[in-house]
Amino acid sequence: MLLPAILARRAVRSYKSDPVADDQIVDIIKAGQFSPTAKHNMAVEFVVVRDPTVKEAVFTVVGSDFVKEAPALIVAVMPEGKSMLPVQDLSIASQSMMLQAAELGLGTVWKNVSLENAGKVKEALGIPAGHMIINIIPVGYAKEPPAPHTDAEYDAQKIHRERW
Length: 164
Hints:
Elements: H1 3-8, H2 22-33, E1 45-49, H3 52-62, H4 65-69, E2 72-79, H5 86-103, E3 107-108, E4 111-112, H6 115-125, E5 131-132, E6 135-140
Antiparallel strand pairs: 1-2, 2-5, 2-6, 3-6, 4-6
């Protein structure tokens, strides 16, 4: 069932130094790679960053200590012109990866990359021109795992049937 992973997935901004295993990174990327894409283009590619020097270079652009603290970063990349809906494709891949990470007991957070910073982040990661990114996903074990969502947060009044 997918709902437990959705309930467990919370923003994590403080990570232990424990490494994330290669097979866990592969499982997370599989979740992103097999995510729905516009017209099944499957054009999303991924950059995995573990090197502290590279993480530091990304940090200098985007800030947020968790970018350099997390044991791994994953960046979904879309070649321009490969999709009619690149932002949606990258977003769905990112969400799928974050849910898979939660399923594996790992924490993540969506770190937005603004349009003005995207070029600098791509340069730091060696991403070629003609490719777009929208976010960075830090991955690791939470220093203090956040409490999962509960049924008490469910709000049936937000459901409108047939018409608003």
